[in-house]
UniProtKB/TrEMBL annotation:
Keyword terms of this UniProt record: DNA-binding, Transcription, Transcription regulation
Domain HTH tetR-type span(s) in chain numbering: 14-73
Residues in the DNA-binding region annotation: 36-55
Organism per entry: Intrasporangium calvum (strain ATCC 23552 / DSM 43043 / JCM 3097 / NBRC 12989 / NCIMB 10167 / NRRL B-3866 / 7 KIP)
UniProt xrefs under SUPFAM superfamilies: Homeodomain-like (SSF46689)
Pfam families: TetR_N (PF00440)
Lineage: Bacteria, Bacillati, Actinomycetota, Actinomycetes, Micrococcales
GO molecular function ontology, one term from the record: transcription cis-regulatory region binding
Source superkingdom: Bacteria
Protein name: Regulatory protein TetR
Length: 213
């Protein structure tokens, strides 16, 4: 059972909602199962009744937590924050590392909650502005905003240094990041971000001369 935290300071409903979502996700990933309301309250430093003043039920909290976890806004925030002044390989390693963290978080959560596939993705302009999920009804702009997630990192690539398009390069890094981060697919031999990027950029064959970054 989670250790009881110090009593949390009062928060506005929106902030309390976000705090409870964060606690739910942290406990689920760490313990590999759905946390109890007692564990959530203890880790959040609130009384159990506080949970139900913010969410109508534990299921509602779980649904909100899953939506927040799968919203790509935080991933986009991390991608945008990558230092563009670095050499291209270093930029792409940072991209792969961010991808792998997200992939492992998602896999851990799916395992803990018994999910066989991700939920439908609902993201809106407010999510992009804040860098985290903002609850709202699905709308026609969702698909376009999710495309923007990938468009936000095209400038990590120097087009003149590669023989494919930047989108194709990033797509391959994403595919190898996923397979190299999944214990079942990788048979326990997980790939580091450096291995992912170097495999995509340079392959594994010995080369006669220096490799241009």
């Amino acid at each position: 059972m989670a250790t009881t935290a110090a009593r949390a300071a009062p928060l506005p409903p929106t902030e309390r909602r976000e705090a409870l979502i964060d606690v739910f996700l942290d406990l689920a990933r760490r313990h590999g199962r759905v946390p109890t309301t007692s564990e959530i309250a203890g880790a959040a430093g609130v009384a159990e009744g506080t949970i139900f003043r913010v969410f109508p039920s534990k299921d509602a909290l779980q649904t909100a937590a899953v939506e927040a976890a799968f919203c790509p806004a935080s991933a986009r925030r991390d991608f945008v924050a990558i230092d563009r002044s670095q050499p291209m390989r270093d930029r792409l390693v940072a991209f792969a590392a961010s991808l792998q963290r997200r992939i492992r978080d998602v896999l851990d959560l799916m395992g803990a909650l018994g999910l066989s596939q991700p939920p439908p993705l609902h993201q809106h302009a407010a999510c992009l502005e804040t860098g985290r999920h903002v609850p709202s009804e699905p709308s026609a702009d969702c698909a376009a905003l999710h495309v923007d997630l990938f468009e936000a990192v095209l400038d990590l690539v120097d087009p003149d240094a590669i023989t494919v398009t930047p989108h194709q390069l990033l797509h391959r890094i994403r595919l190898l990041s996923f397979s190299g981060s999944h214990p079942g697919i990788a048979h326990g031999e997980l790939l580091t971000p450096e291995e992912v990027v170097d495999t995509v950029l340079y392959g594994v064959c010995a080369r006669p001369g220096p490799i241009r970054d």
